[in-house]
Amino acid sequence: xxxxxxxxxxxxxxxxxxxxxxxxxxxxxxxxxxxxxxxxxxxxxxxxxxxxxxxxxxxxxxxxxxxxxxxxxxxxxxxxxxxxxxxxxxxxxxxxxxxxxxxxxxxxxxxxxxxxxxxxxxxxxxxxxxxxxxxxxxxxxxxxxxxxxxxxxxxxxxxxxxxxxxxxxxxxxxxxxxxxxxxxxxxxxxxxxxxxxxxxxxxxxxxxxxxxxxxxxxxxxxxxxxxxxxxxxxxxxxxxxxxxxxxxxxxxxxxxxxxxxxxxxxxxxxxxxxxxxxxxxxxxxxxxxxxxxxxxxxxxxxxxxxxxxxxxxxxxxxxxxxxxxxxxxxxxxxxxxxxxxxxxxxxxxxxxxxxxxxxxxxxxxxxxxxxxxxxxxxxxxxxxxxxxxxxxxxxxxxxxxxxxxxxxxxxxxxxxxxxxxxxxxxxxxxxxxxxxxxxxxxxxxxxxx
Length: 449
What we know:
alpha/beta
């Protein structure tokens, strides 16, 4: 949502016909949210249009519309799967009835910050799978790349080969009490979220139509149109429309609803690994009418689930021969295989320095307070903080949180603490961590009896 400081025209007042006042339902939510400027106790100007719109509805009408939104969520089956081999449960999708406006100034900072990170990670990806100049010049620590299971040696291109681009990139953002935004994590393999964003927009447009039809909110359709054109552009097809499939994990995947919703919206065939096969250096879709050639694969699965050559996956067997078909140029895949190495927490902690060394400029959006223990100074500092309990922190694998346990130092004592210190000193380059983020304080809501 891209707001403006101009008021947004509201719908007709609620059924009561009374003069618009701030509804109890709305006030309670807004007072306990980040809408309130903690320094002044007031809402910033870019909230004016939304509050006027909500006030014009009245309490009864707003409550009725939110009831309708919950019905739509149930009808659509919007959910997030919480799956494990012993049990499978679905968590209903949580949708805030009050949209979050962001000022145009803040949005420009976020937009430019994400673009900068995308550019930086793209350069790193092309280098580590190409000439590896950053590693030779020690800009990138070699142990952080070659020791990472996410680095796929099988997929490395020669120095004269064109390295595939990324089409989707995600960042988890947090807002601090002073209004600054920071990045807590970025996704490069199969970033999730755009389908849920689309579902949110569909529901909110139905329950708050005038707000979105007033042309004060940026539309999502151009993004998906550009994504579709980008995927068509890498297909290599010039005479006919390419066949694009979306490779998903299946019903057991955490984001299966999003994948179904997104495939239907984009008009792509939703497939699992068993639906695809290779013949020679070509990829085909199995259908009742025979094999049909696939030109582009939009993958929503990790690297290890794409081809047995890339590793083993207990859940997904992969598509034998997929890497060879990609290297032969007969099928394109997005995001590029091997991009999981960019999700390394150790690499994430080094981004501020890498941005200065590679792009010659500071990061626009700061990281959360994170670190990599591959340097001597950081290792000594962290070990001392663990011994003295001077500062609580969370430690995990520098390669991927999935490859080792997550350790919260505040819960450690005695022998457990010494075991952690010994593990860090044995392989410091394999550890990363972060300090806790202070929660954003909220104003207490008023008791209205």
